[in-house]
Automatic annotation (TrEMBL):
Organism annotation: Massilia rubra
One Pfam family, short name: Acetyltransf_3
PANTHER family, alphabetized: [RIBOSOMAL PROTEIN US5]-ALANINE N-ACETYLTRANSFERASE, GNAT FAMILY, PUTATIVE (AFU_ORTHOLOGUE AFUA_3G00765)-RELATED-RELATED
Protein name: GNAT family N-acetyltransferase
Family classification: Belongs to the acetyltransferase family. RimJ subfamily.
Coiled-coil intervals: none
Length: 174
């Protein structure tokens, strides 16, 4: 468990499933910048039971309000590419929690956790080039823009450009 100022980041448990399904499947909550794949609740339940949605390839965590234990978002990290000593992170928040600094704090907490607990040297964030809010989070967290991957993602019927931001271990203070 990683503690923030008003929330905790923790592994997913089976009782999270009813709140998790809308976060992963509802296009209005997912927003206009993430792919619109729909996850089967039965498959999600199986994955939670198998490994808590945490394995070498992908670790998905929930962001939970400290008061009330309400899930307000998800944050994840995955292997960037096989030949990089890196992890890629991503995040999404419920609509009512956006713009309140939760994403920035959650990213900073996960970055510190990953650099303190793994040998990786690099953390990447990729976002739809139109997603200015996510770009602001990356910049506030010290990530540097490295480029644009043209037409790299398929979102709501269109191929979209993705911005690539990265942060190296030595760039993180303390």
């Amino acid at each position: 468990m990683i503690k923030g100022s008003n929330f905790v980041i923790r592994h997913i448990i089976l009782s999270d499933l009813p709140a998790l399904v809308p976060l992963l499947n509802d296009p209005d909550i997912r927003g206009e910048y993430l792919p619109s794949a729909i996850h089967s609740p039965i498959d999600l339940e199986r994955r939670i039971q198998d490994d808590g949605m945490a394995n070498d390839g992908l670790v998905r965590l929930v962001i939970v309000e400290q008061s009330g234990n309400t899930i307000i978002g998800t944050i994840w990290h995955s292997k960037a590419v096989p030949y990089f000593n890196a992890r890629e992170i991503g995040y999404t928040l419920s609509n009512e929690c956006r713009g309140r600094g939760f994403a920035t704090e959650a990213v900073n907490l996960l970055v510190r956790y990953l650099f303190n607990s793994t040998l990786i040297n690099r953390i990447e964030i990729r976002m739809d080039a139109r997603n200015l809010a996510s770009e602001k989070v990356a910049i506030k967290c010290g990530f540097q823009k490295e480029g644009v991957s043209r037409g790299a993602n398929f979102v709501r019927g269109n191929h979209v450009d993705m911005n690539l931001y990265a942060l190296l271990r030595h760039e993180v203070a303390g």
